[in-house]
Design a protein that fits this description.
The protein is an all-alpha fold and about 325 residues long. It has 13 helices and two strands; from the N terminus they run ααααααααααββααα. A hairpin with a 4-residue loop joins strand 1 and strand 2. Helix 4 packs antiparallel against helix 7 and helix 6 crosses helix 10. It is globular, with a radius of gyration of 21 Å. Bound molecules: Phenylacetyl coenzyme A. The site of Phenylacetyl coenzyme A (FAQ) has 29 residues, from helix 2, helix 6 and helix 9.
């Protein structure tokens, strides 16, 4: 089939809201954009295990520990589905991990912030998982089939993560004055970085127009950020906590909450590697990778042995 015909078929598929599958022809830019986004998403899940994983041994009760263990394991699972989805586009997991470790692929800015108290775990569940779901539910309708399908299960699990965070925060907020203060402090620190998770403002988002035209993104960064703010304000009231933004006010004309100005300089600094924990996160990730070398070697040796046995049997 000639190139013009292939492009026309692809355009027709996108226009009819169909799904692109791994063996279908696709423009090189589409493939590269998906690898960039899915790899970044996978890396976020894997690096995102660190801030909370830090609290598994110090969870305040067996119940909280079991929940947190399950959550962090879910995140590892999400990373694996997403690496598999990205591999269908022709880049191996090893290559993606090498690019992450070399600082040539990104992970979400949010995971470069510290978790000094137990309330941070609750605030991450409520706000970070809440923002992740708001961003990811539309991705279940992404034009690339393997990514869209992976997102269905991921969103179900993120929903449990968000609820456990909300419930934990509610308990802290209704606890002793010290617990309430700890919950409020965590929300104060996680609110603005959570808004940054949605990416730069629409006017400064170089990838949005093309990703939307290709049916990868269904809503803009600002639309999703606004949706998240609108969801969080009443939930904060239920929690008995305040959101650290004096400009947060209901705008009846727009039918949305107005919110204050986001510090995009901070966001850019975090993206450049200068956030509070960037160096630590990458160092821990690299160490985990090198500590796991023996598992990869054992798996390769086992696969080689099995293949040799199959060849002998066939001969
Ligand atoms: N952090 O043109 P846009 C989770 C980069 S999963 C770092 O708007 P795009 C689960 C962007 O890559 C969280 N970099 O880009 C969990 C681009 O860089 P490049 C991860 C960011 O792709 C919870 C440049 O800025 N979720 O939390 C960020 O169209 C709890 C220009 O931006 C996903 O990855 C950022 N926040 O839109 C785990 C969801 N924002 O490559 C553990 C899928 C932007 O041009 C615990 N991803 N950049 O140099 C997406 O939806 C999109 O990629 C956006 C960015 C919306 C993040």
């Amino acid at each position: 089939m000639d190139a013009t015909r292939q492009q026309a078929d692809f355009d027709a598929l996108i226009a009819s809201d169909g799904r692109v599958e791994p063996r279908d022809w696709m423009p090189e830019g589409y493939r590269k954009t998906l690898i960039r986004q899915i790899a970044q998403h996978a890396h976020s899940e894997i690096i995102g295990m660190q801030p909370e994983g830090n609290w598994i041994t110090r969870a305040p009760s067996l119940r909280r520990k079991a929940i947190l263990l399950a959550k962090v394991q879910d995140e590892a699972g999400h990373g694996l589905y997403l690496y598999s989805a990205a591999e269908t586009l022709g880049m191996s997991r090893e290559e993606m991990l090498d690019l992450l470790h070399a600082g040539r692929q990104r992970y979400s800015s949010i995971f470069n912030y510290p978790t000094p108290t137990w309330a941070d775990v609750a605030a991450i569940g409520w706000l970070v998982d809440g923002a992740a779901i708001t961003n990811q539910v539309p991705l279940t309708r992404c034009s690339y089939g393997p990514y869209a399908r992976a997102m269905i299960r991921i969103c179900k699990e993120e929903s449990f993560h968000q609820r456990q965070g909300f419930e934990s925060l509610l308990q802290l907020s209704n606890g002793t004055p010290e617990q309430h203060e700890m919950a409020q402090d965590a929300v104060n620190r996680w609110w603005w970085p959570s808004l940054m998770m949605f990416g730069p403002p629409d006017d400064d988002s170089p990838n949005s127009a093309q990703s939307t035209a290709w049916g990868i993104k269904r809503f803009s960064n600002d639309e999703l950020r606004q949706r998240f703010v609108d969801i969080c304000v009443p939930q904060a009231e239920t929690l008995g906590l305040t959101l650290p933004d004096p400009d947060l006010v209901w705008n009846a004309e727009r039918g949305h909450y107005d919110y204050g100005v986001i510090d995009w300089t901070e966001f850019q600094q975090v993206l450049k590697g200068n956030g509070p924990c960037n160096r630590q996160r990458i160092a821990v990730r690299r160490q985990a990778h090198s500590d796991g070398a023996w598992v990869r070697e054992a798996a390769a040796a086992y696969a080689a042995k099995k293949q040799a046995a199959a060849v002998t049997e066939a001969a």
